[in-house]
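[audit] Reproducing an earlier prediction to check determinism. Same input, same settings, fresh worker. If the tokens differ from the archived copy the diff job will pick it up downstream; this log only records the rerun itself.
[audit] input (112 residues):
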Amino acid sequence: MLKTAPEIGEPVPGHCGALEHVGRIRYLARHGWSDPIELDVGVPCLGYDGPQWPVTDGNHRLWAAALRGDVSITVDVAGQADHAAMLLGVPEAVIVGDRDDSGWSTGAGTRD
């Protein structure tokens, strides 16, 4: 199905068929994207463990990255920074700091 699905350049609604989802992933795998995948890791220290599935926006981008074999992806993380760092296996500075062109943190700070 991956090889025969027509590429779909626009976001597809969640209720569409498998062919449309595959087409969207196929398009993204070939052409890439510029917006980060959004994750919600929760705030365990306040009793909120996060949603059942942490990807709140970017499921098609995540699958496209996996198909391409990307070793890293850019994400925006909502939730408790130290918990996110532990889940993602990165230093906490990566979660709270500015990103350089590689997507990794250059130190604590805020993004524009």
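[audit] rerun output stored. Observation attached for the diff report: The mean pLDDT is 84.
[audit] end
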